[in-house]
Amino acid sequence: MKTLILGTRGSDLALVQTRDVAARLGRAHPGLVLEEKIIKTTGDKRLDVSLSAPGSLEKGLFTKELEEALLGGSVHAAVHSLKDLPTEQPPGLIVGAILERADLSDTLASKHAGGWQGLPPEATVATSSLRRKNQLLLLRPDLKVVEIRGNVPTRLRKILDDPALDALVVASAALARLGGDIVPEGLQTTTIEEMLPAPGQGAVAVECREDDKETRAVLAAIHHEPTALCVRAERELLHKLGGGCHMPLGARAVIEDGKLRLLAGLFEADGIRWLSR
Are residue 81 and residue 38 in the same domain, yes or no? Predict the structure, then answer.
């Protein structure tokens, strides 16, 4: 194989992740020509759709068009944030590689110091995630949690510019990948240690056609099996529960002393239901 075309969304974060994949592949396969093809997904077009309300657009909101491009042959592989990838893939597609996981925590970007404890009474926090919303309200029942859409830089700017908003919850990995300058002056970031992440959060997946043995062989060089084992456990739990990517499930799997340990909870409106500890 001389050329590999990577399909990607056009957001800043998606492009950073895709270029990281390309850089890893370039190091593993000198001489391989790597190209990227930007594909707009339904989630990018439909900013009016609530991500916290289950509906007909819930599954594959950020992946469907990329998978169609794969099946149609216009790209060889597609790069995804794993937490956006439905647990059931279309026939003929597989995950060819999962990169080593980045920080899987959530971060509060706030106008106030002191993390979630430092938010003023009845502060307004923005998130598009029901999982994050319900966990925040368990920590601080007085908070007002509102929906927000847009890419990460847009959301951060909205918090700073809107006097009605106090803070935003965002994946720590997204901030790290986009670089320290992405957080505008006037916002402070604090890891929310008490919050369980989404299944697969912090991991990047590269999807390809199952029958494309050449691409699968190329991708194998950047696959990180310990990460794959952990995210597989988290996503299998999500699958068994019949949930989509936006189910309020928190899950964190780690390998300790040769054993995989999974901590998970379903964060429902009336409290938490522990599923695995």
Answer: yes
Please give the residue range of the domain that contains residue 28. 3-102+199-276
Do 114 and 181 fall into the same domain?
A: yes
Q: What is the 3-state secondary structure (H, E, C) of 11-52?
A: CHHHHHHHHHHHHHHHHHCCCCEEEEEECCCHHHHCCCCCCC
Cα 221 from chain centroid (whole Å): 23
What's the Cα-to-Cα distance from 113 to each of 76, 108, 140, 218, 274, rounded to whole Å?
Answer: 46, 10, 16, 46, 31
CA 58 from centre of chain: 14
What is the strand order of the sheet 3-8 is part of?
Answer: 33-38, 3-8, 77-81, 204-209, 93-98
Enumerate residues 6+ apart whose C-beta is below 8 A from 24: 99, 221, 222
In sequence order, what are the beta bridge partners of 126? 146, 168
Catalytic residues: 84
Helices (H), 192-224: 213-219
Beta pairing class for 249-256 and 106-110 = unpaired
Give the separation between CA 67 and CA 95, rounded to whole angstroms.
Answer: 11
Give the pLDDT confidence of 150-206 residue by residue, as tens digits.
Answer: 999 999 999 999 999 999 999 999 999 999 789 999 999 999 999 999 999 999 999
Which of 138, 163, 191 delimits the end of a domain?
A: 191
User: How would you label 242-261 residue by residue, b for 16+ Cβ within 10 Å and e otherwise?
Assistant: ebbbbbbbbbbbeeeeeeee
The two structure tokens encoding residue 206: 């590269």
Measured distance CA(218)–CA(199) in Å, rounded = 26
Question: pTM for the whole thing?
Answer: 0.90
